[in-house]
Design brief:
This protein is α/β, with parallel strands linked by helices and 524 residues long. It is 26% helix and 23% strand. Strand 9 (179-182) and strand 10 (186-190) form a beta hairpin. The chain binds 2-acetamido-2-deoxy-beta-D-glucopyranose (7 copies). One 2-acetamido-2-deoxy-beta-D-glucopyranose binds at residues 439-440. This is PLD phosphodiesterase domain-containing protein.
Amino acid sequence: MKTLSVPLLLILYFFLIFCNPITRVHSSSDGDYYDDDEVQCKAWLVQSIPTDMPHLSLVPGVLSTADVFRWLAGNSSRSLDIIAQYWQLIAHPQDPRSGDYGYSKDDMLRFGANDGLEVYRELENAADRDVNIRLLQHSGVYPDYTEEPSKLALGRPNVKSVTLLLKEWWGSGVVHAKVWISDNRDVYIGSANNDWKSLTQVKELGIYLVGCPRIAEEVKIYYDNLWKLAHLNSSAYTKQVSDQQWQTTRKVPCWSHFLHRKERCRSPLPKYLEVKHVTGYPVLSDPDTFNVSIETPGLNYSSSHTQSSYLSFAPPELLFGQYQTDEQAWVDTIKSVGKGETVRISTMDWLGQSQYTSQTLYWSSLSSAISEVVFSKNAKVKLLVAYWAHFINSTDQYLKSLLYTNNLCASSKYNNCYGKVEIKYYLVPGFNLTGPSTINNTATKNIYPGYTRVNHGKYAVSDVRAHIGTSNLIWDYFYTTAGVSFGTYNPAIVSKLQKIFDTDWNSPYVQSVQPLEESRAFSS
Ligand SMILES: *[C@@H]1O[C@H](CO)[C@@H](O)[C@H](O)[C@H]1NC(C)=O
Ligand SMILES: *[C@@H]1O[C@H](CO)[C@@H](O)[C@H](O)[C@H]1NC(C)=O
Ligand SMILES: *[C@@H]1O[C@H](CO)[C@@H](O)[C@H](O)[C@H]1NC(C)=O
Ligand SMILES: *[C@@H]1O[C@H](CO)[C@@H](O)[C@H](O)[C@H]1NC(C)=O
Ligand SMILES: *[C@@H]1O[C@H](CO)[C@@H](O)[C@H](O)[C@H]1NC(C)=O
Ligand SMILES: *[C@@H]1O[C@H](CO)[C@@H](O)[C@H](O)[C@H]1NC(C)=O
Ligand SMILES: *[C@@H]1O[C@H](CO)[C@@H](O)[C@H](O)[C@H]1NC(C)=O
């Protein structure tokens, strides 16, 4: 058979490059942008399901976190930007300081530790392919700290690793977002840490967006701002503010809206919008959204229409006055519920206060939003909260207080209130048998490594809107800690997320939270 001549191949090549509708890029005064009509953005929900949960039926069409992380690294050809709280992709069963300590090779294999190693190898491969890699994280956790990102960056000028301590900027808080951006077009946002345990021993939920340059570009702005913070001298850019909304004095970046305009500095962050001094952070009545047509492969849904989607970020000072706060996006998702419809919320933590501030702050934003829709829309709210080895004890009091909404709803015969709050704990089997298998040469009763066996996903879904986040539902995550969410009105994503929730809610791994005992205070 005759082969094509070289000039003909070249012509074909140029034709493909410049006329391919998939990759056509337009230029405008704002720089390059991609035409949404021509780029078909795809989205998949992503889960990690811990081993040994035989009664959890898998929701079809959902990808596994380990695959998605491997692909994001494997497909990157130009750039890879990762935000992580900490790194422990490689297990350390031989390190007595590690929660993996004492488990055998077979145990580790059974726990799925190899998946973490494979993700790490894919990252090494990308680094060796000369992909420009940026790794941004908190200082990490005991005993590995920043060992893995530092190793990846060592001797490779194309890999940069920085540690960002938000405590220096907000007085407390950490980098808690989990975000991967590959080649400025493929993105992961979700609850999974860069930890082998997050792939096979912790239950996680996220979203994988493929061929979505417009969404990637917006997440990148946030990334660049965090990167910038990591390279600034925080003491030259922070101030104490008397915060009227939260009734406390705390440290904030000097461009914060919480400061009076006269005391405020010029923001060193690009794309920052000046707004007036506010008591609390402004709720945007018309937050920035983008209309993208998102294809959801494997789902029975025609995607000829575009639906609005959004991103939200925390803390507020990184929002440039343009994007909505993460807290608003959670509240608006709860409030998006239709009359008589259902809101489903899944979270590891739930606490109506702050956790890490020196002055404890009361925080009722989400529980108020729930009570409001139970009253005004007769909505049903289903809340799933993790119960595990590091459960925060006072959670139960706050959940009971939220359940009291049901008593208030039915408290008068004049109330026209038929809504309902239902709350369940999620118990991944083995949650109370986690930790090193050996301590000081003595065998423990543990059968799983430390910090495993927990439902760690953070999301909310009403009948019309899905919100997938990285933040725990506690004050600190919205005001001092870095978090990112992706949300959408895409009906296929909404219904798939509802199915994922219902599978958990109806599984044998849940227990109902009991309401407060009826008080007899008023009967005499
Ligand atoms: C690239 O990503 C796709 C899915 O988005 C996956 O099927 C493929 O295996 C990935 N390629 C590599 C080299 O990781
Ligand atoms: C940071 O800024 C403070 C206050 O402006 C200054 O005293 C300090 O020397 C600076 N530190 C560095 C490392 O530049
Ligand atoms: C996005 O789509 C929605 C519904 O299709 C429409 O109401 C809205 O005006 C659109 N927004 C923009 C900015 O095009
Ligand atoms: C898609 O859903 C519609 C309505 O729910 C149903 O009638 C149809 O059979 C489904 N198609 C497939 C391929 O599952
Ligand atoms: C939580 O409760 C458990 C059991 O009652 C107790 O052992 C633990 O110390 C408590 N933790 C905190 C932080 O109060
Ligand atoms: C662990 O939790 C399970 C389920 O709640 C319980 O049945 C079991 O007794 C607990 N085991 C220990 C060692 O606490
Ligand atoms: C192990 O032994 C050392 C030295 O005796 C002691 O300091 C340490 O607290 C022990 N660790 C645990 C977890 O019991």
